[in-house]
């Protein structure tokens, strides 16, 4: 703020100078400065009071919310999730039905398109059996009998070993 020095009348910017820049006189007891101080103090007090009230209001609101939350969980604690879940199921069912219906429509359209394309290319399908070509008979093959005759058995002599008795 700007005031005028009580001693020399010079203009003083109180934000810049602590004393009069012209004569060095103190302006701390200047009427204007004191009034301004009081004004600023009042503003400060009002600001503090405003903040206090705002804090109080927030406390009360929080308390209300907390109590409301408690009431909610106590009274409708299991009902709300159930209702939400049922709604979700309903929506899911509708979505699935819509997808299924639109999908079959799409499939029908695609099948018809394919049929058109096939008829355009004049493809033809027949279910008649295809004749199997004649397979030549397998000729009989003579397999000679094989017989094995044992004529002699080698004789193995085992040496006589006497085991001493204990
Ligand atoms: Zn002065």
Characterise the protein shown here:
The protein is mainly α. It is built from two helices and two strands, in the order ββαα. It has helices at about 30-75, 80-120; strands spanning about 1-5, 10-15. A two-stranded antiparallel sheet has the order 1-2. The structure holds zinc ion. Zinc ion (ZN) binds near residues 5, 8, 10, 23 and 25.
Describe what is shown at a glance.
The chain is 53% helix and 4% strand. It is mainly alpha-helical and 166 residues long.
Question: Taking strands numbered 1, 2, ... along the chain, how are they ordered across the largest sheet?
Answer: 1-2
Share in helix: 40-55%
The total strand number stands at 2
Gap between N and C termini: 134 Å
Can you write the helix and strand succession as a string?
EEHH
Mean pLDDT across all amino acids: 82
> Would you identify the regions where 5 or more consecutive residues have pLDDT less than 50?
none
Report the biggest beta sheet as strand number plus sense, adding barrel if it closes. Answer: 2 strands, antiparallel
The helix tally amounts to 2
Evaluate the radius of gyration.
57 Å
Q: What ions, cofactors and ligands are bound?
A: zinc ion
Structural class by helix and strand composition? mainly alpha
Shape: elongated
Beta-strand share of residues:
under 5%
